[in-house]
Amino acid sequence: MINKTLIVNGIKRTVIVNKDDMLSSILRNGLHLTGVKVGCSEGQCGACSVILNDKLVRSCITKMKRVPDESTITTVEGIGTPEKLHPIQAAWMAHGGAQCGFCTPGFIVSTKALLETIPNPTREDVREWFQKYKNACRCTGYKQLVDSVMAAAKVINGEMSMDELMFKIPEDGRIWGTKYPRPSAVAKVTGTCDFGADLGIKMPEETLRLALVQAEISHANIRGIDVSEAEVMPGVYKVVTHRDVPGKNRISGLITFPSNKGDGWDRPILCDEKVFQFGDAIAIVCADTEKNAKAAAAKVKVDLEPLPEYMSAPAAMAEDAIEIHPGTPNVYYIQNLKKGEETAPIFDGADVIAEDDFYVSRQPHMPIEPDVGFAYPGEDGTLTIHSKSIGIHLHLAMIAPGIGIEPEKLTLVQNPAGGTFGYKFSPTMEALVGVAALVTGKPVFLNYSWFQQQTYTGKRSPFFTNVRMAASKDGEIKAMEADWTVDHGPYSEFGDLLTLRGAQFIGAGYDIPNIRGQGRTVCTNHAWGSAFRGYGAPEIEFSSECLMDILAEKLGMDPFDLRYKNVYKKGATTPTGQTPDAWSLPGMLDLLKPKYEAARKAAADKSTDAEKCGVGISIGVYGCGLDGPDSSEVRVQLNEDNTITLFNSWEDHGQGADMGSLGTAHEALRPMGITPDQIKLVMNNTAITPNSGPAGGSRSQVVTGQAVKAACELLMGGMRKKDGTFRTYEEMKAENIPVEYDGKWTAPARVCDENGQGSPFAVYMYGVFMAETCVDTATGKAKVTKMTAVADVGKINNRLVVDGQMYGGLAQGIGLALTEDYEDIKKHSNMRGAGFPYINDIPDDMELHYVETPREHGPFGAAGVGELPLTAPHAAVINSIYNACGVRVKALPATPDKVLAGLKAL
Ligand code: MCN
Ligand code: FES
Ligand code: FES
Fold first, then answer.
1. Could you tell me the distance, in angstroms and rounded to a whole number, from the CA of residue 513 to the centre of ligand 1?
2. Which GO terms describe its molecular function (predicted)?
3. Could you tell which of 104, 421, 423, 658 is best to mutate to test the pocket of ligand 3, judged by most ligand atoms within 8 Å of the CB?
4. What pTM was computed for the model?
5. Which homologous superfamily does the CATH classification assign to the domain defined by 1-193?
C-alpha cells in the first residue's frame, strides 16, 4: 500500500492505494467520482478518459504507481455542473451528443484536452484526436459529436455566446418537431447520471458482490459441480447452483408459435444437465468483494463430458448431428411464404432470372456499457431487480416462474442504460441476480466485464439466404423465390418470430405479386440469438437488395431505374399482402436521383488504378410494432400544483424515451397552454408504471405515443370547461372529477397466417440509402466516404433525436458491412477484435433528408425511426464496392481479405 496526494478537480485529496490499482478504480470507488465511466477496461473505448497533469489518459489502464504524487486530475465533474455548464457540455446538449450518454463524460473530458491543445480545430483535427485517444461511441455515428466540439470551440473563442448556443422554445410554445434537448441531457453531460455500475458503488455495505462460474466450452453434459473448495474461500457467503434455484430454473420467451417443435422452456438460469454454449452460467459466487467472489469462482470444479459443438446452422442440420435439446429437433420451426400465383411456371417463362446466395453475420451489439444489474429483497417476500431491461413487464413474466417467485411479488426497474441496440429485448442477468438475492436474502450486485458482455449476451442471428427473382425484359419483377436458414444459437426465445420477419421483409419495398419461400430456425451452439436493431430486416433485405443490383446488371439497367420501376406505388402490396401505409418511395427516389447521378460521376472521375470508387444504393422498409394488435398503456395525473405527471414504461436504450414521452405529452396537452417544464416523467418501474410494452420493434413512438396522446386527451376532457378553458386541480377536486387517467392504444393490425400473409404492422418506415465508397486495390480495404439517407419516419417528434437515430444506425450499417463480427469467440471478444467502428471508419459526410408523410395510425402523424437506418445501409455499401471495383461480397463482413481475393479473381 502507498499513499498519494492528488489534486482532483481542484481539491486536495489523500488516497491509500495498491500501486497496481487503476486510477479509474480509485476515482470511482475511492472518491465516488462516478462520472468516470468504465466500459472496456482495456484502453479501447475512452469512456474512462481523464486529464492527468495536462495529458489525456485512459484511467482504466493507468496504474497508480505511474501517477506522481501531487498530480492534478480533471474528471467530468471538474469541468462543469448542472447549475454551471461548461460550453462543451452545453454544446453536447444542443447538438444531441448524448444519446445513451455512457461515452459522454469521456468525450467531454477528451474535448477539454483537445481545445486546450488546439483552440481552433478543424473537423478533421477533431476526428484525428478522437481516433488517437480511442474515444468510441456506439450510438451517434460521431457526426453530432464533432458538431458539438465545433460549437463549443466557437463559444470558448468568443465567436458565439452561450445564449446563442442553447435551444430556445419557439414563440408559439411548441416543442414538437424542434431540437429541444432531451430531459436527461444535463445529467449525462455532467456525469451525474447514475448508470447501473454507479448505483452499485452506492449500494448498502452488506451488498454481496457476485461472480459467475461460466462454461468455457460450447456443448457438454454436466456430470457434476463441486463447490466445496469455493465455499470456504475468504469472504464467500454462498455459492449458488441450479440445486438452489427455488423455481423452474428456466427462462421462457412466453409465446411460441403453434407449429414450433420446442416448448420454449429451453434456457436454464443456471445450467443443470447440459452446457449449451460458451459462457453459459453454471454457478454464482456471492461474496463480500468482487475480488473474493472471482477468486472463489475460479475454485468451483465442473465435471463436463464434451459433446460435438455445432457452431453454425449447416453443422447443426447435418444428418449425424445430435439434438442439442434432446427431444427437440435442431430445426425446430418452419415458416412458409406464399403470396399470389405459383412461381415455378413464372420462372419457367421468365425473360430474365437472377439468383444468388447471401450470408449476414453474427453482428455483436457492442454497447460501451457492459451488462450490469442488481437485486434486493423487500418486505413480505418481495424482490426488486434493477437492470438494463428494455422490456420490464415482459421480462418480469419471462423470469418469475424460473426464479420461483409470484409475479406480484417481483418488481423490475430499468436503470439508465448505456446502449443495448436490442440485446436487452431478452433478459440477461435479471434471473441470475434475482435468484442470488432470493437465496441469500441480501442485496446483490453483478457487473459483467466487457468480455462477458461480448461472449455471454445474445447476438444477431446469422441468416443464410438464397433468393431468386424473375423479371420481364423491361425490368418488371414478376416473381420471387426465397429460402432462408436462421442460426439462432441454443435458445429458442423469439427465434420463430425472427424467422417470420424473413417472410415479412424479403423484397420489401417492391411490388412483387407472386412469392414463394420457406425459412427455418436452427438450434446451434454458438451465441444465443437475441434481437438486434432491425431484427430480421438487415438479415433478409441484404439479400434482396444485393440481388436487385445483380438483376439490374442482367437486364442492362441502372440499379436505380430498376428500383424506381418496382417500388411500392398505389395498388402495390407488401410481401405479406398488406397495403403499405405510405406511398413515399417514388418521391424519395426522385429526391435522391440528382445526388445519385452526381455521385456516380464524381466516383468515376476520382477512380485511379490504386483506388477505385463507386456508389451503391438500397431500399429499407421496416414495421413499427410487435405483430398484430400490439398495445400500450400509460397514465397521466394532474398534480396539486397544476403540473402533470406522466407514468409509462417506455424503456430507454439511449434512443430518447424521455424525449419521446415529453414531446408527445406536450404536443397533446398544448391546448392547455402547459410548458414542457410543467410535465414530470415517472418511467420504467413495474411497481408504479403501467405496461407500455417493450421498447423494441421501433414501436414506442407509435404505440406508446398513441397511448400518451389518449391519456392526455382523457385528462383534458375532464379538465375542459364549457367555455373552453381548463379546470385547476382545486376545481377538479371540488367537482369530484378524477385527476388520473389511463391511456391505452391497440394497433389496428392482423398477425400473419402460416403462409406469412397478413397486415402485421399498422405503421411502416421507409428509407433509401446511398453509399459512396473507395477501395484500395492493393489491400482490398473499403472506406465509405459518404452516406446519404432519405427517410420517411412520418412527422418528426424531436429532430435532434431522429437525426441521432439516423446517424447512429447508418454507422452500425457500415460496421455490419465492413468490419463487425462475433464468429471467432477468441478474436472477436474485445472491441477492436470484433471490428468496432471508431471515428475514422465512419464518414463525417452524412446527409439526411426527411419526407414526412403524416401517418394515419401514428400520434400526430409520427412513425418510428429507431431501426430504419439499419434495415439496409450495408447493402448499399456492398453494392458500392461492386460498383467501384467489380467485386461482389455475398458473405458479410466485407473484410479486406475477401475484397482482395475478389480483385485477384477478376
Ligand atoms: N422519434 C421521433 N419522431 C419520430 C419517430 C421517433 O422523435 N417520428 C423518436 C422517439 O421519440 C424515440 C426515438 O425516436 O426517442 C426512437 O423511437 P422509436 O422508433 O419509436 O423506437 P423506440 O423508442 O421503441 O426505441 C427502440 C429502437 C430499437 S428497437 C433499438 S434496438 C434501438 C433504437 O431504438 N436501440 C438503441 N435506438 C437506439 N439508440 C441508442 N442510442 N441506443 C440503442 O440501444
Ligand atoms: Fe478505459 Fe474503455 S478505455 S474503460
Ligand atoms: Fe455514445 Fe451511447 S452516446 S455510446
1. 32
2. 2 iron, 2 sulfur cluster binding; iron ion binding; oxidoreductase activity
3. 104
4. 0.98
5. [2Fe-2S]-binding domain (1.10.150.120)
